[in-house]
Amino acid sequence: MHNLRQFTVPLQRYMAMMDLQERNERLFYKLLIDNVEELLPIVYTPTVGEACQKYGSIFRRPQGLYISLKEKGRILEVLKNWPEKNIQVIVVTDGERILGLGDLGCQGMGIPVGKLSLYTALGGVRPSVCLPITIDVGTNNKKLLDDEFYIGLRQNRATGEEYAELLEEFMSAVKQNYGEKILVQFEDFANHNAFELLAKYRTTHLVFNDDIQGTASVVLAGLIAALKVVGGTLADHTFLFLGAGEAGTGIAELIALEISKKTDAPIEETRKQVWLVDSKGLVVTSRKESLQHFKQPWAHEHEPVKELIDAVQAIKPTVLIGTSGVGRTFTKEVIEAMASFNEKPIILALSNPTSQSECTAEEAYTWSEGRAIFCSGSPFESVEYDGKILVPGQANNAYIFPGFGLGLIMSGTVRVHDDLLLAASEALAAQVTEEYYAKGLIYPPFSNIRKISANIAANVAAKSYELGLASRLPRPKDLVKHAESCMYTPVYRSYR
Ligand SMILES: O=C([O-])CC(=O)C(=O)O
Ligand SMILES: [Mg+2]
């Protein structure tokens, strides 16, 4: 840590950490676990975003497996080249929508690498069973195509049948090589592929889309916890999203599902409490024909509204959630409006990395006179307002996916069911203690993440056994203990 702290530029720390991961894996994980709050922003959001943007020029050696269009017809063979034979989790991207940074092509590899290092550090999944994969079908990022250091195929993205065939070959090769219970986490695919891939493979493979389902589970957990601070039930709230992509519609659906389960109202009804704004304005019935299919369930009866501020005024949400990937869109007017009709407005600026956040913590607190319950996707420092220190929460997927994955693996779960996501949310929310509520916090600190992950894993596994999706029998009696006993822990002997 002493050496690492000599570097003042976050990207240099990132590079030093990547070198360490290569040179001494145990020390890498020991450091990451013992200094998680300090190092998470380095190996993960926001620095990993910058690393992906500059991946070509900071490249030293490949950290994962690249599968390109050129390997079509030989993907199984390529998988067999990876030195580890026993793989349990794959995180795969095609780099088309890296965080809120857009198409970074092959340089998106930083994301699967970073996510899997959190599987190990936060969720205790052994490093040797993790495989980062980037599928290279080209990039439409002109700047990268012209960059002499770009590491991927220099062509525009393959689409349509060519793309679908490559993905199909990949998914079947993965199952053939690693078996039925290999967990495949889709990460940072563009909307137009993400929903389709999830729908296509969720019935035949153990797949999980972190941007749709992981984000949803984390945000739902925060909202369940927030009820303790603001009162009422989820059903009493009205939700407005800016951004109707993977995160927005994924969160919206899980909220509607949870309310439906709690109130016995049909989901078609509970969806009406959730409103989405996309780049063309409020998603309303009159736009239905022209909407992409994943937005259609959210087209409600309302006159057209173009601007976010007007939608906020018209809908009067209690919860405002930003998932647009576009920074600085929660303006002073928007936050002030939220604060004018809510005693404690819940404001979640989820877009990553920090540069894409819909507003800063300071803006949310200042413009709401210190009353907002604010969380962001990427971390923000505490803010002093009116003599008080206000601590923003980080509503980041990293709370859920490592524990969620551990729960699936340790129970031998064969398919991901939405109820498992709800189980993960409830387990995370249950980790927020009175002490945190009193400070207005709706997420526990990352310093407790290993314990949190064990609890999430246990609750997910319990639900999986209950639903008959878990193949590892007999079911352990104490699932929290079992989760802890499964977790990889880098230990050093003390000679003192
Ligand atoms: O990586 C993160 O911090 C969360 C995430 O999945 C994304 O923004 O795509
Ligand atoms: Mg992502």
TrEMBL record:
InterPro entries: Aminoacid_DH-like_N_sf, Malic_enzyme_CS, Malic_N_dom, Malic_N_dom_sf, Malic_NAD-bd, Malic_OxRdtase, NAD(P)-bd_dom_sf. The keyword Cell cycle does not apply. GO terms for biological process: malate metabolic process. A divalent metal cation binds at E187, D188, D211. (S)-malate binds at R97, N352, N396. GO terms for molecular function: malate dehydrogenase (decarboxylating) (NADP+) activity; metal ion binding; NAD binding. Its cofactor is Mn(2+); Mg(2+). The active site is at Y44 (proton donor), K115 (proton acceptor). Keywords: Metal-binding, Oxidoreductase. The keyword Cell wall biogenesis/degradation does not apply. Residues 212-465 form the Malic enzyme NAD-binding domain. Pfam families: malic (PF00390), Malic_M (PF03949). SMART domains: malic, Malic_M. Divalent metal cations. Prefers magnesium or manganese. GO terms for cellular component: chloroplast. It comes from the Eukaryota. Residues 21-202 form the Malic enzyme N-terminal domain. Gene3D superfamilies: Malic enzyme, N-terminal domain, NAD(P)-binding Rossmann-like Domain. Belongs to the malic enzymes family. This is Malic enzyme. It comes from Olea europaea subsp. europaea.
